[in-house]
Amino acid sequence: MAKLLHEILIDQGTLTPEQVKRSQLYAKQNNIPFADAVVKMAFASEEQVTIALSKHFAIPYASKENGILAPEKEQNLQKIIPEKFARENMVIPLFVEDDALAVALTDPTNLFLLENIKMMSGKQVQPFITSKSQILNAIDTFYASTNLLEEVMNEAIKPQEDVMANAEADEEVAETGVLDLDKVSPNTSQYVKQVNAILRQAISERTSDIHLEMFDERVSLRFRIDGSLYERTPPAKESVNAIISRIKILSKLDIAEKRLPQDGAFTIRYQNRSIEVRVSVCPAVFGEKLVLRILDKGTGEMNIDKLGFEPEQKKAFLEAANLPHGLIFLTGPTGSGKSTTLNAVLTTIRTPELNFMTLEDPVEYKLAGISQVQVKPAIGLTFAAGLRSFLRQDPDVILVGEVRDNETAESCLKAALTGHLVLSTLHTNEALGAVPRLIDMGMEPFLLASSLALVAAQRLVRILCPYCKVPHIPDSATLATIIREGRLNPRDQNSWTFFKSVGCPKCFGTGFMGRRAIYEVFRMTEEMRNIIYKTQDLVELKKAAVRSGAFNLRANGWRKVIRGQTTIDEILSITTADE
């Protein structure tokens, strides 16, 4: 008799019996499958659950890592299963062998779908199971038309077209608040096509920001991918104003206002997922500059095990996060993934027995079982005001999006001293730099010393593309530096692997595919508390942190390098030796 899914997850050490009970209760309360509940509760990753489902159904597991989720390029599989059908049904063809068609899908129990595929192809169907995120990426890669943007940009604009064209589509967007990129109308105006093509291409390339701006002689369209900007085929100069006006219409901004900056947002539906787009328009010398921030919840990583923590760093962070009260600060520049890390930590420690509340600007990820509040300074709902209100809501754990001023800092300290755990972020270059910054904001050193539980910092490093990276042997001087700064044992060199980036079609020529965080995590020791209380000497604090066994950003980065995850140049470009 086949084992039940929860039994398999327990057997493979993924879930505890207690987590099974909590997941079953969550599934019942929210009317969702048990497998979905396990992932939403962050007890297991999507891949771990899919592997367990593979064992449960006795159906082979397909993934990019095991090499099975790689459709044959020479068998014209896209003609057997068209892209539209693949996206709508979350299925992708893998290969044809004799009279059988192998397909990967997320729900192998969907007999109706399997029968449809059999009728479409005229072949017997061999199913493989895969996860939703894996199949979406595989569909993007397999059906990608990398020339789509160039084709649309090079099409001629008809004289009669203007930004108000396609009124029907605009009415639908105004009514639903969502731009559906999966719906294509044959009567769509060229300006609308260009906007849609830019958005589609950006999402397919894992873009975080789109920059469109005019200069004296040219137009620039750039995509920020994994932290770096890359040029893309721009629209004609005479199209730019109409494209910006189109974006303004979607985000409900004033299309007549070109003198002042404007901020807005809209939502798009694409490939079975909802994606939020934040819009910023700023007047410049040669015309308005447009920047779109793409918040694709489908790519957010809420699994703390996949963020980039070293085991000892993860242990230290979670120990602090499970304290009944205290202050935890995560530092780093804008866009370094601080919100993702803190949300992953909250998701990991979340429990029905505690009251979790967050105060954010903006709320980027919706977290189940956690009360989230959006800051609105225009009406007086600031971080400090919201935090004062929170204390009357009987919270146990509070997340404050950012400490920006003295009032917020003092409110966080008061909350920590009155029995609450407070997590927040600061803009400092290093983790221990949070101490003098907080004291400058008015925190008394003796109160800070007693309440501060942990400070951490993070940066994002680009991860090498697995398809095109090539082995690399560093010179002896570089190797010696890595050993010294990484505090590594030279006897372990035989297990180290170094690579360098190349670039291929799958990574759009960048040589990298995705990013991961590097961290420095410092739990407060008695020695460090005494330094904060007596002298606040940053140099002494760093020495005490080293004596506690913790290591800094660069040391964490070198650990990613020796595992072949990123390059030496990448770590050197984003860290300094004394961080």
List keywords for this structure.
seven-stranded mixed sheet, 38% helix, globular, alpha/beta
**Global structural class:** alpha/beta
Sheet with the most strands: spatial strand order: 4-8-9-10-5-6-7
Helix proportion of residues, in percent? 25-40%
Largest sheet, in brief, is: 7 strands, mixed
How many beta-strand runs?
19
Low-confidence stretches: none
Gross morphology is globular
Distance between the ends = 56 Å
Approximate strand percentage: 15-25%
Q: Rg, please?
A: 26 Å
Contiguous helical run count: 23
For the residues shown, what is the average pLDDT?
86
Describe the protein in words:
By secondary structure, the chain is of the alpha/beta class. The protein is built from 23 helices and 19 strands. The protein has a seven-stranded mixed beta sheet, covered by helices on one side. Strands 13-12-14-15-11-16-19 form a seven-stranded mixed beta sheet, sandwiched between helices. Helix 9 (about 150-155) packs antiparallel against helix 11, helix 15 runs parallel beside helix 16 (about 405-415) and helix 19 (about 475-485) crosses helix 22. The N and C termini lie far apart (about 55 Å).
